[in-house]
């Protein structure tokens, strides 16, 4: 069976602030429970990478959006940290 997506289908990506922002304690942001947890138990985080060192979308958002456009995405959902 072959399926053809409609021409108006929304192709996109989604991300959450914690997973992508990076710079978790810069830009006027205050510490969150995630920052405190990482400070106290860094071994609980995959490869010891905490909220400050993620994919750095916070600093590279223009380049990241350009990459999404290259992939023909026409939608993108993100979140902002309430601590910002």
Brief descriptors of the model:
84 residues, mainly alpha, two-stranded parallel sheet, 31% helix, 7% strand, beta-glucosidase activity, Beta-glucosidase
Structure write-up:
This protein is mainly alpha-helical. It has a domain at 17-22 and 52-84. The protein is 31% helix and 7% strand. The chain has a two-stranded parallel sheet with strand order 1-2. The longest helix has 14 residues, at 57-70. GO terms for molecular function: beta-glucosidase activity. It is an enzyme of class 3 (hydrolase). Its EC number is 3.2.1.21.
Biggest sheet layout: 2 strands, parallel
**Rounded average pLDDT:** 88
Strands side by side in the biggest sheet: 1-2
Label the structural class.
mainly alpha
- List segments where confidence is low: pLDDT < 50 over at least 5 consecutive residues: none
Helical content (DSSP H or I, runs of 4+): 25-40%
Count of strand segments: 2
How large a portion of the residues is in β-strands, by DSSP E? 5-15%
Structural shape: elongated
Radius of gyration: 16 Å
Number of helices: 3
Distance between the termini: 48 Å
H/E series, N to C? EHHHE
């Amino acid at each position: 069976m072959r399926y053809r997506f409609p021409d108006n289908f929304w192709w996109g990506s989604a991300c959450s602030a914690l997973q992508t922002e990076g710079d978790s304690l810069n830009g006027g942001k205050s510490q969150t429970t995630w920052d405190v947890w990482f400070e106290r138990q860094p071994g609980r985080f995959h490869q010891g990478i905490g909220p400050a060192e993620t994919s750095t979308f916070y600093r590279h958002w223009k380049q990241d959006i350009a990459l999404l456009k290259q992939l023909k995405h026409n939608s993108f959902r993100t979140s902002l940290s309430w601590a910002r």
